[in-house]
Amino acid sequence: MVTKTERNYYNNFYELAAKVNSAGTPDVVLRYVVKKIAQVLEAKGASLMLLTPDRKQLLHTVAYGLSDWYIRKGPLSVDKSIGEALEGNPIAVFDAVEDPRIQYREQAGKEGIASILSVPIMLREEIIGVIRVYTGERRSFTDDDIYFVGAAANLGAIALENARLYEAVEQEYDEFRQQMLEWRAALGDEWMSGVVVTPPDEMEDLPTLTGF
After folding, report:
1. Nearest to residue 37, comparing CAs of 110, 119, 158?
2. Contact 92, 115 (CB under 8 A)
3. Measured between alpha carbons, how far apart are the two ends of the chain, in Å?
4. Angle at which helices 26-40 and 143-190 pack, to 10 degrees?
5. Coil, strand or helix: which one is 114?
6. DSSP 154-173
7. Mapping DSSP to helix (H, G, I), strand (E, B) and coil, where does residue 147 land?
8. Do β-strands 76-77 and 115-123 pair in parallel, antiparallel, or remain unpaired?
9. In this structure, how many other beta carbons lie within 10 angstroms of the beta carbon of residue 118?
């Protein structure tokens, strides 16, 4: 039998999936995902952090419920900040002020953070970052909590992939449009001379773009 808590998670996961599949911009979608996670878990805040290319630091990419002061407190070292989550397993910290796995324990206390749940974000079988949930009181996260955040993290990865694809298509369209403008300009210059001007050969390989 499905419990009330499980039903709540299912309903909110459905809303998250619908948002990721919407026409919203990647930034808006990611902010929605992070905000929704915090609200569903009734937490103080949440953050999506991505690994730097050298995989030595985590960068706050999208955050909800956290002060700018806390977000900008300093670089997050993978070796000093719940690094186990980047090995593929969710990690729950019961006391963020005392746990040595927390890099900025004093700052966490000043921010009013008591417990932290850190869940890896995986894209194409590669860990690219984490989603963290912060509570204002000490909390033991349940299996349902961890499962929901993990599922939401996967949706966050899909949103990031969509952002990458969107950027690639947008760049491809800009290049296509520039080539078309150059071809039309050449056509105008050569029209009176009777020279036939054809589009560049590479245009034949470009996909048909619609919806712009």
Report:
1. 119
2. yes
3. 47
4. 170
5. coil
6. HHHHHHHHHHHHHHHHHHHH
7. helix
8. unpaired
9. 25
CATH superfamily of the 4-166 domain: GAF domain (3.30.450.40)
Best CA proximity match to 148, nearest among 114, 116, 117: 117
- DSSP for 85-107, written as a single string: GGGT--EEES-TTT-TT-TTHHH
Instruction: Report pTM.
Output: 0.73
pLDDT tens per residue across all 212 residues of the chain: 667 777 888 888 888 888 877 756 777 888 989 999 999 999 999 999 988 889 899 998 899 999 999 999 988 998 888 888 888 999 999 999 999 999 999 999 999 999 999 999 988 888 989 999 999 999 999 999 999 999 998 888 887 777 665 555 455 555 555 665 665 566 555 544 554 445 555 445 545 544 44
Q: 3-state class of 81 per DSSP?
A: coil
The dihedrals phi and psi of 61, each to the nearest 5 degrees, come to -100, -45
Full DSSP string of 18-37:
HHHTSS--HHHHHHHHHHHH
| Spacing of C-alpha 43 from chain mean position | 19
Contact, 102 vs 136, CB < 8 A?
A: no
Q: How far is CA 114 from CA 44, 96, 189, 199, in A?
A: 9, 5, 70, 63
- The number of beta carbons lying within 10 Å of the beta carbon of residue 72 is 8
- Ranges of each domain in the chain: 4-166
